[in-house]
Amino acid sequence: MLLLLGWLAYYTLHSVLAATSVKAAVAARWPLFTRYYRLAYNVLAAVLLAGLLFYQQQRPATALWEQRSGLLITGYALLLGGTGLGLLALRGYNLAEFGGWGYLRPGNLPVSTDLNTSGLNARMRHPLYTGLLLALAGYLLVAPTLPHLISVACSALYVLVGVRLEERKLRHHFGQAYTHYQTRVPMLLPRLRKD
């Protein structure tokens, strides 16, 4: 039960701190902190995630089902495939902006102003989330315990809710260009053929 509450608290905090209104409030109150917000957000997320995963590993766990070689192979394939897809997806991002360390450099903030519709983003709007969902499914097949099921279920639910929240922010930021992109490119499942 504590693990479930931990994941719910983690993802709620993650969403609240990512909200545009919270960022604006922080910028109004502490304008000098604005350039460090993204990095602080990512460091906090990483520390809390590490704590949750450590707590998860301390929970007693028995297998929910008998581990068979076919499920294990499928699990590792999903885990590796999802991780690979996620790493490929990251190549399409401005990692200095995404990670927050680009804001530490003097000068202009490294904000992306163009909508990226190339590479994997030409096939699906959120390849990073698709990779994460595949990796989560693989993780559960490889290690089918109740603590892992709780973590995977909470994380998958968060991705499905979070992608909708992110879509709203992207529509607001990019306007008609993003609305048009939504009509042409699917959200999570790749379009296999080009138009």
Describe the protein's architecture and organization.
The longest helix has 29 residues, at 146-174. By secondary structure, the chain is mainly α. The model has no long low-confidence stretch (mean pLDDT 89). The termini are far apart. It has 8 helices and no strands. Helix 1 runs antiparallel to helix 3 (37-58) and helix 1 packs parallel to helix 7 (146-174).
Concise overview:
This protein has 195 residues and is mostly helical.
Summarize the helices and strands and which ones pair or pack.
Elements: H1 2-18, H2 20-29, H3 37-58, H4 69-90, H5 95-99, H6 127-142, H7 146-174, H8 176-184
Summary tags:
195 residues; mainly alpha; 8 helices; 0% strand; globular
